[in-house]
Amino acid sequence: MSGSEYEVVVIGGGPAGVSVARSLAILGHRVALCGSSRRHAAVEGLSERAASALRAAGFAQALEAIGPSLPRRSSWNGVLVDAGREHLVDRRRFDEALLRDALGSGVACHDARCEGWHYGERGVRAHERRRDGAISLIEARFLIDARGRAASFDRDSGARGPATTALGRSWRRPAHSAPGSAVAAFDEGWCWLAAPQDGPMYAQIALASDSAAIRSRSTLAAGYEAVVERVAELREWLRGATPCSDVDARDATPLLGGRLATERSLRIGDAALAPDPLSGQGLFEAIATGLAAAPVVNTILRRPADADLAREFHLRRIEDAFWRLARVGRDFHRAEQRWSESPFWSARRAWPDDAPVRGDAAQATIAAVPVSEDGFIVRREAIVTADHPRGVWRLDGVELVPLLQLLRSHEGLRRDQIAAEWSASRGVAVSDVERALVWLQQRCFA
Ligand SMILES: Cc1cc2nc3c(=O)[nH]c(=O)nc-3n(C[C@H](O)[C@H](O)[C@H](O)COP(=O)(O)OP(=O)(O)OC[C@H]3O[C@@H](n4cnc5c(N)ncnc54)[C@H](O)[C@@H]3O)c2cc1C
Questions:
Q1: What do you get for the CA distance between the two ends of the chain, in Å?
Q2: Which residue's CA is the nearest one to ligand 1's atom 21?
């Protein structure tokens, strides 16, 4: 057994693990990433928002692997509509490209499986088994759990939505198929077809995990085929296509992992919050939680006096995103009204509760909250509203609380005069100040 020492070890080489590993390496930390490659082939839709996050963070290789933005259609509640665009990514190719980006930024990437870790006086020791069977030890001051849904679930502090399983299969495409994706609802679930620019198509069916098709591995293919036979949209999408893989089953239950932050570890990505795939935000949240975790870990390691503040930032961010996405998912399910009494739809229309996705934007208050600034978590005064419960302290580089104070102390001044004065004194664009002023006004401040 050999050993090596790092400041941070990241377990899991998916979008979350790579995002945090790369960001920490850029901040000057020695980072090891222990990741085993994906078991199953899958195609997923990557939102424009996720592509922008990759672009902003400089993921050149991953951006090359996402392909063009393609049209998305939706057949929901009996209505067929255009539903925006998404990139269709082959997850194996995408994850390999992410790893190349990490390597290029100085992350030590180990093609290995982590078999466990334990905490010692100086930090954490992770045991890894490399592809050739060799076992080695990684010693680090801090560990990040980015194992996706393979991470353990903490019953006391975690939460689960209705148990959902997705069956997926690749299909050789017929000559008539146009690139793009489509989603459709049916009485026992929903289905999604991805026809990327190149390569096979992929058809995925989401069902309640206790449905008959999923009870045993031997019934998966028959269950999948029965749904294809029964659902008109699926039949039409797959007309002339032939299967070119087995049917795979993936857990797709919305999940808040729990134990999000301990003294020497953090969870990110699906290990922290795994949204309902219907939201199409899983990849975005994985990348975003990875990027947001880097200043948290940087603070814990380099400004230990602020470690509690950094953990508070992480916890609030993850929990806020999880419950917001859960309610967005509930509203999607409520929008489909044809089978509201069926077990699949009724359970998902009721979870997690009846609270609105976001409360009223008005009635803002000022509070000191943890925010991310220049690679660290610091406390800043921010505007807290029901639609932004974690507070907003800066918009396009314009600090909101001092701008509000200026507004209040110069009641006679017009908005354009205030914008001009602020822009001149702080060196920010007038248009950015104007946007910030509108934002404040909408929240009953001005
Ligand atoms: C059926 C389904 C469909 C989905 N479709 C979409 C979609 O269309 N759009 C979208 O945005 N999101 C989608 N998602 C969500 C998306 O897949 C996840 O949110 C995203 O992959 C999470 O990234 P991650 O890095 O946290 O985890 P993962 O991508 O799961 O990566 C975890 C990595 O850790 C590795 N690992 C696990 N255990 C160990 C270990 N012990 N040692 C070393 N490595 C380990 C795994 O092999 C894997 O490489 C879907 C999810 C499901 C279940």
A1: 65
A2: 283
Tell me the β-bridge partners of 384: 365
Tell how far the Cα of 10 is from the centroid of ligand 1, in angstroms.
15
Locate tokens 């592509």: which residue?
51
Of ligand 1's listed atoms, the one at least distance from the Cα of 268 is 26
d(Cα 173, Cα 199) in Å, to the nearest integer? Answer: 8
Strands 189-195 and 201-208: antiparallel
How many of the other CB atoms lie within 10 Å of CB of 91?
19
φ and ψ of 391, to 5 deg? 90, 145
Q: Which residues line ligand 1 (CB under 6 A)?
A: 11-17, 34-36, 38, 44-46, 113-114, 146-150, 166, 204, 250, 252, 269-271, 274, 277, 280-284, 286
Ligand 1 pocket: which of 11, 22, 147, 153 to mutate (most atoms <8 Å of CB)? 147
Q: Read off the pTM.
A: 0.95
> Which of 10, 23, 36, 204 has most ligand 1 atoms within 8 Å of its beta carbon, as the pocket-test mutant?
36
Tens-digit pLDDT profile for the chain (446 aa)? 445 589 999 999 999 999 999 999 999 999 999 998 777 789 999 999 999 999 999 999 999 999 999 999 999 999 999 999 999 999 999 999 999 999 999 999 999 999 999 998 889 999 999 989 999 999 999 999 999 999 999 999 999 999 999 999 999 998 878 999 999 999 999 999 999 999 999 999 999 999 988 888 888 999 999 999 999 999 999 999 999 999 999 999 999 999 999 999 999 999 999 999 999 999 999 999 999 999 999 999 999 999 999 999 999 999 999 999 999 999 999 999 999 999 999 999 999 999 999 876 667 899 999 999 999 999 999 999 888 999 999 999 999 999 998 888 887 888 889 999 899 999 999 999 999 999 988 875 54
